[in-house]
Amino acid sequence: MIARTPLVRRLAVAVAGVAVAATALSGCVSALIPDGATTTGTEPVLDGVPDELLPIYDQRLEWEACGSGFECSTVTAPLDWDDLDAGEIDLAIIRQPALSGTSQGSIVTNPGGPGASGIDPVLQGYAAGTPLQEEFDIVGWDPRGVGDSTAVRCFDADEMDAYLYDVPAGTRGSDEWQADLEARAEGFANACDANSDGILEFITTEQSSRDLDLIRAVLGETELDYIGYSYGTFLGATYAKNFPERTGRLVLDGAIDPSASGEDVGLTQAIGFESALRTYMQACVDGTTGADCPFTGTVDDAMGDLSALLSAVDANPLAAADGRVVGADTVMTGIIAALYNEANWMYLTQALAEALEGDPATALFLADFYNGRDAGGGYADNSTEAFNAYNCMDYPAESEEASAAVEQRIAEEAPTIAPYWSGASVCAYWPFEPTGTRGEIAADGAAPILVIGTTGDPATPYEWAVSLADQLASGVLLTYEGEGHTAYNGVSDCVNETVEAFFLDGTVPEDGRVCS
Fold this sequence. Notes:
It comes from Microbacterium gilvum. This protein has 17 helices and 13 strands. It is of the alpha/beta class. Strands 1-2-3-4-6-5-7-8-11-12-13 form an 11-stranded mixed sheet, sandwiched between helices. Helix 8 (231-242) links the parallel strand 7 and strand 8 (247-253). Helix 7 (205-218) crosses helix 8. Residues 1-32 have low confidence and may be disordered.
């Protein structure tokens, strides 16, 4: 298994139902934009832009109809905002015009990752709730390094399969096992360097925050209205740090603590997923996950039985119908994928019941969902490549002593997950030294920023939202007492209405408000 730290993919949606949402949405807006239509964007907002950046900011977008009822365009940005002569990159962008026909402005969205496409959530209708879609243009983009923008490229599909799914050589923890993982990590990093056309050094959140301000300007907006989920909260907080006077209404849902080190992130997430797994197990043995639970007794009994199952699969991997061999690391990836959203618990119950019978079908389905692998063996996006590219540049390297101490704590506090959590770090072989720093963000002078934390969030634990809201000079904390990763546009009417009032009416909730 490849090291999972730091892990902040969003995956807040359930594994089923996304296509239904997209179909329903496209029918609502298709009449607004005829097929083949093109429009010229508004004049960019150039107030406060330094003279040397005026040629970059002064671009009018050419929008073309795409999908059914959406418009797509391309923004041109510098490869390196600190060296404008270093070259250019393309940023793919999409917008859904306000369904009411009269827009109050643009809300720009980022679904997280890092490395997730910002275009897909807009197309599929879950970037923002219907009340905001009615009144605002909803905008998404593939950040630098991602998807249809100038992208990081590493492996082809077969190589990615081997990297993500092959069972390591040797027994877990042995020198042979570790050497196999190290070779995989080094091979991945070398392939990214060879195939990414010189962009890896500039795939950073700092650079991406500058892209975000360019997008604001070319959309014709004086201030940025923004919803960032998961990693998108770090991008949004970084934007507020760099451009506090240009922040409008920012919502940061599933917050990341910008002061947490990479080791701290890995530790907190491992404990978070262990806790979420125990919560799931309680529901499983209580019979409330929507499928027959294969475990009985107490939660501790069930966790012990799961550990035994994982050990058995580790010793004797399972054969899948498509010819792949499924090891314990892939089963754990499937478990983690399901824990992102309580709606997926029934799939997890099914996966574990099948695995006990020697069938890895649903566990592999969940792992494929997490990795963006389709049924034909291809990969829908480059999220794994971009995920590593951002993290390797954003997080400073840790000492061996710090890493060892964290591994010990994970073993003690997340004993079920610990054996399958860490392995080899791609970043140890990355061709460029990280340029990111970790530290508190205050964003003095920014408008009120709404930070949302979910008490049972395993991927971005609640304590990070509390910390970020405290750091931000204008931070306002909204707590959702529930399970899953991120809260807005989900099951809580309280959260949905609070966020939508913030955008629609400018209503800032009381700091510390709790929704359950």
